[in-house]
Design brief:
With 120 residues, the protein is mainly β. 4% of the residues lie in helices and 52% in strands. The chain is built from one helix and eleven strands; from the N terminus they run βββββββββαββ. Strands 2, 4, 5, 6, 9, 10 and 11 form a seven-stranded mixed beta sheet that branches. Strands 1-3-8-7 form a four-stranded antiparallel beta sheet, with no helix packed on it. A hairpin with a 5-residue loop joins strand 4 and strand 5. The longest helix is centred in the last third of the chain and has 5 residues.
Length: 120
């Protein structure tokens, strides 16, 4: 059974940085990817970034390219977020599944989410 647990959310000022972590277990690391999504207030959940275990470059949404970085340390996938803007506010979810499904927004499993608020 796949389990994904997010941590690291909080309140940060515009221009600041935050690092989210997703600790996973039960993921078929040989074939899967782990990604991050965001759901802003009143908006649909959107794909942000994904990292595949089979290699290749990470995938990023245009809205976060150059500001967000996804990487992996052991069984934790982290999302480093820099130059944060008020529009980055939302609930951030970790998810896993085949890479194409994660990037398309239809992963197999979801975490419970962690709140990020960017405000002065």
């Amino acid at each position: 059974q796949v389990q994904l647990v997010e941590s690291g959310g909080g309140l940060v000022q515009p221009g600041g940085s935050l690092r989210l972590s997703c600790t996973f277990s039960g993921v078929a690391v040989s074939t899967y990817a782990v990604g991050w999504f965001r759901q802003a207030p009143g908006k649909e959940r959107e794909f942000l970034a994904a990292l595949s275990w089979t290699g290749g470059n990470p995938d990023y949404a245009d809205s976060v390219k150059g500001r967000f970085t996804i990487d992996r340390v052991a069984n934790t996938v982290q999302l480093q977020m820099n130059s944060l803007k008020p529009e980055d506010t939302g609930i951030y979810y970790c998810a896993s599944g085949p890479r194409k499904m994660v990037v398309a927004g239809t992963p197999s499993s979801w975490g419970q989410g962690t709140q990020v608020t960017v405000s002065s």
